[in-house]
From TrEMBL:
InterPro entries reported for this sequence: Atu4866-like_sf, Uncharacterised_Atu4866
Top-level taxon of the source organism: Bacteria
Gene3D superfamilies in UniProt: Uncharacterised protein Atu4866, PF11512
Protein name: Uncharacterized protein
UniProt-listed Pfam families: Atu4866
Length: 84
């Protein structure tokens, strides 16, 4: 597990499910904030990217991962799209 304090990858930004219910903001400092429905900070934590893989560790210790395929993020059974 290698974390970088300043990610140098093209995935920083907001990723959303097609219905807009889940919104994940990948911040340039290696932190993320995930909104679910009306809960704007349902999950928060750290992330790091290795190639096209993304790894998460939320603030209570839960871990997860995902993979980017172009401008689509596949994460925890969800498909998320980049929001401009």
């Amino acid at each position: 597990m290698t974390e970088s304090p300043e990610p140098t990858h093209p995935y920083v930004g907001v990723w959303v499910t097609a219905d807009g219910e889940i919104r994940q903001r990948l911040l340039p400092d290696g932190r993320y904030v995930e909104a679910r429905g009306t809960r704007e900070a349902a999950y928060t934590g750290a992330y790091w990217v290795e190639g096209s893989m993304i790894f998460y560790r939320d603030d209570i210790g839960f871990t997860a991962d995902g993979v980017f395929r172009g401008d689509v993020l596949h994460h925890a059974g969800m498909v998320m799209y980049r929001r401009e």
